[in-house]
Amino acid sequence: MPGRRRSGGFTLIELIVACAVVGVLSAIAFPSYTEYVLSSHRSTAKAILSEQAQYMERYYTSKGNYTGAKELVLQSPKTGQARYVIKLDPLAADSFSVTATPQGKQEADKCGTLTLDSTGSTKASTSATNCW
């Protein structure tokens, strides 16, 4: 009709295309974001393991053995919801091992349990690379 003006707005096809684009971008971005968050929490746990190992070396220097040493912190992060549980295992008077075991959503992390021992050796419970 010659006298009718087209009202502003989007057509149904334009809305469907926009939703499809958002869906594709979300499908790509969300897994990357999730991996980034897990990696960030893993970095915090590694820092706490290193801090505990440094404490153990200072303890050994002053006491002459690792016997009787305690964990500095019990979880990672130090406050808030635990992503890792920190455990110290004095294996003998002259050696120790400190582990960070993932908890909750962090269990989905590719590296699993992280371990640092008195020789400075690091390992992950899985065969994933780039954990340390």
Folded structure, characterized:
By secondary structure, the protein is an alpha+beta fold. It is built from one helix and five strands. The protein has one helix spanning 12-63, and strands at residues 75-76, 84-92, 95-102, 114-117, 122-124.
SSE map:
Layout: H1 12-63, E1 75-76, E2 84-92, E3 95-102, E4 114-117, E5 122-124
Antiparallel strand pairs: 1-2, 2-3, 3-4, 4-5
Helix content: 25-40%
Q: Please give the domain count.
A: 1
Average pLDDT for all residues: 88
Rg for CA atoms: 25 Å
Taken as a percent bin, the fraction of beta residues is 15-25%
In short:
The chain has one helix spanning 12-63; strands at 75-76, 84-92, 95-102, 114-117, 122-124. With 132 residues, it is an alpha+beta fold. The mean pLDDT is 88.
List descriptors.
transmembrane helix, 5 strands, N_methyl_site, five-stranded antiparallel β-sheet, alpha+beta, single chain, transmembrane, 132 residues, Pilin-like, Prepilin-type N-terminal cleavage/methylation domain-containing protein
